[in-house]
Amino acid sequence: MMNTQLVMYEEDFKKILAVIQRLVRDANAKGIFVVDKNGQLIAEAGEVRGIDTTSLASLTAGSIAATGGLAKIIGEEDFPVHFHQGTRDNLHITLVGGRIILVVVFDDRSSLGLVRLRVKKAGAEMGKIFEEIQKKAEREAATGTAKSPFAEITDDDIDNLFSE
Amino acid sequence: MSFINYSSREINCKIVYYGPGLCGKTTNLQFIYTKTNPDLKGKMISLATETERTLFFDFLPLALGQIRGFKTRFHLYTVPGQVFYDASRKLILKGVDGVVFVADSQIERMEANLESIDNLKVNLREQGYELDKIPFVIQYNKRDLPNAAPLDELRRQLNTMGVQDFEASATTGEGVFETLKAVAKTVLSDLKRLSR
Q1: Which of B59, B106, B181, B184 has its CA 20 to 30 A from that of B96?
Q2: Where are the domains of chain A?
Q3: The domain A10-161: what is its CATH number?
Q4: Which of B5, B64, B91 sits opposite A66 (nearest CB)?
Q5: Do A161 and B134 touch (CB under 8 A)?
Q6: Model confidence over A140-164: pLDDT tens digits?
Q7: Under an 8 A CB cutoff, do B94 and A3 touch?
Q8: What residue spans of A94-153 are helical by DSSP H?
Q9: ipTM for this model
């Protein structure tokens, strides 16, 4: 079985957060979300109050998966950039490093051109961070030093979750 | 693929409900949604056609509580059961941690059940998974219907791997939580096993 488990440590999380907090300012964005291709929300920044972030993450991943399927049908590997224009708010969605999705919500205080420009730089930085995370995971797996909070749980711990 | 976040101290797992069209996958999720404490669940999303057939997926995030200081969250997904939505089913299986196969107990749906479980195996293999190596449980749904096939017959045909299985009636909720608990426990036990 493929071992593709994503493990995020505090230090990596901080690096990602720093990139997207800067991107919010540089791109004049309302909010930014980093989502795993499998639909898990990794980080968020900006005005995200009132947004159902769990649903946003799941639907973004679904949308990327569906358009990725479309891309393959016409012989493309992927469609790495998506833009959805609304009457007030717009969404700019980018696939980073084939695994991470960067979602930018913006309104008329910004523009598609600006968002596109800033996302390009931030996306590259983010790509590097996730590459490092991947390498770290591979190193840990190879040396057997990977520690998981699940290594030491007992059957009782699991049963307790379902006790009520 | 589970996601362990040390920063927010969360563990997220993905469970997919699979099965033939109209077997009751969405009904399972709807029942779980209506019976779960609002603090523990997120919004349920259904991407369905106008006639309420699942078009892409249903999604329900659930929080189960804490294990060793980590919030344990399960993301439940259903696939569209109709045969011609196969491309969508493949996409939803990506990154799956555990599968519930919902079988339709009605005798005339046996062929559809068999076809769907074969389709599950093929689609998992495309993602690099083998059904007998991932957390997997079976639910025989619609046990309350008069034309339900005998349990022995369903077991013999569908549960060839001898996994945990449950009788259910998703409209009344019978067996729904038992199935969910079984798959969630199996997923967590598997995480424990893999992290050793």
Answers
A1: B106
A2: 10-161
A3: 3.30.450.30
A4: B91
A5: no
A6: 877 766 667 777 777 788 878 876 5
A7: no
A8: 112-143
A9: 0.84
